[in-house]
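Fold Annotation — chain and its backbone
Encoding — discrete vocabulary of local shapes
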Amino acid sequence: MSSLESNKNLAGIGSILLMFPFVSIVGIILVFIGMKGLAEYYKDDRIYHDALRGLIFLIIAAIAIAVMFPLFIIGGSFGIFALGPLGVGFGLISFFLVIAVVFVFYLLAAMNLRKAFNALAQKSGEHMFETAGMLLFFGAIFTIILVGFVMIFLAWIIATIAFFSIKVPPQQYTYAPPQVAQPMQASGFCSNCGAPQDANSTFCSHCGKQLPPA
């Protein structure tokens, strides 16, 4: 399997996994490995660096969701029990802080991934990457009204199709031309039968008589 084919398949599988929260971290890793390989294949560092920044921000956003929301629920419950109405106020403030952190990091991730996708679209000729990058960016903006999550989901579907649609050029095989035996260059003739002889021959190849030294 060629380098291009293996890397585009890795990134495509990672894009599928990114659509499922429980395996999204695995998806992020596979997309990164695939994008790194594609950047090396197309010799364009923009693809790698922008994808790296975008996926780092994406990991931070995922960690924020995985860690901060449980802490918010536990802390909010304790605050309501201990502080009453004041605890509700602190809980709401904490909730909006969590949302703000996730929003900022996801927006940064979408901006960098959009750049990586645009560069990949130019190199591969698959312009669906541009559509995926645009949907990721606007989806990140519109997450505050929930419709953004639908746009993000569609973005990764389109990115998956784009990865698997990258055309792999046929391999060029080169064959060495067959070696053609060079005809013997006659440098003399047998004194017995007159057959042509090679310069290094000691005996005649036709009659077997010993030849005089050259």
